[in-house]
Specification:
It is built from 14 helices and 11 strands. It is of the alpha/beta class. The strands form 2 sheets. Strands 2-3-4-5-6-7-8-9 form an 8-stranded parallel beta sheet. A 3-stranded antiparallel beta sheet has the order 1-10-11, with no helix packed on it.
Length: 356
Amino acid sequence: MAVMPGLVNAHTHLELSYLRDEVAPASAFVSWIRGLLAARRRHADVRAPEILDAIDRAVAEAIACGTAVVGDISNTLASFSPLARSPLAAVVFYEIVKFNAPDPEDVVERARHELDELVPTDLVRTSLAAHAPYSVAPLVFRAIRKNIDRDPFAPCSVHLAESAEEVEFIQTGGGPWRTLLEDLGSWDPAWVAPAVSPVQYLDDGGFLDARVLAVHGVQTSTADLARLASCGTTLVTCPRSNGHTGAGVPPIEDFYRSGVRVAIGTDSLASAPDLSVFAEVATLHALAPSVPPSALLDSATRQGARALGFDADFGTIEPGKHARLLAIDLPQRTDDVEEYLVSGIQPEQIRWLGEP
């Protein structure tokens, strides 16, 4: 067997678990988003039993797949209590979506007040997240950054450079995202497109630094990746979700070649078949066979734990850390253990050493 640290799923949306198999794949990202919004409107009560039960099942699935730590994105905070009573360590990111915001400071303060009503545990923490450059106003980004800076150790998350439509919107102010914002009544006619890449837009605005998880990065250029690396920002890749949503195929080899920190997420069960980080790693290995297996395993453990602020307790096997360790059954005469571990480990091969 191989003994290794529990995995880190650095980006998921547990509250969307009830939408498993409910949002069809799409060839264009905004089309998929419209399908997601329609599916969510069919379930208006965010505390409905079927939604909470789906979160509990998703937590159990993540543990069975070898996950020890999650970065969970939430619009409702419905996942906080299920995570707090589970064995998982987690950061629950309360995600702000507000493009037309007459009072951006108030938007963020109200979100912070809701977080302050929760009682963090030793293993479950909370923080704020910005949804994306096409759905969050510049002054809301600034207010989130200001709020996060009150805690020098709090991580922050943002979906960034996920789709071609996002790139078009930030460059020109038009395209499918503009149309969707208008359809939702969320368009701000005073907003002016910065005419740069999404990565440069957030960096120029002072949002990116070493505490930010930039999720997806499918549409990043070499210059974008160099900028992320220089900021110390962690890029969280979720390739299976990218294929389902129509965002495209992430340039995995470019990610690792650039020197940017790379972590791994599954995204939600609305866009991924399961919550297995091992399956995500196998997809990365298939897309980028030149990336050493050791680098992929590092992304699935140490880099994710560091990005979420749990590196003092998780991500590596060291004295003083939590012994949340996995034992992976190996076939006889396995010559390259790391190669085997990135080739598709199934839940039935995984055992927790001690309590999960």
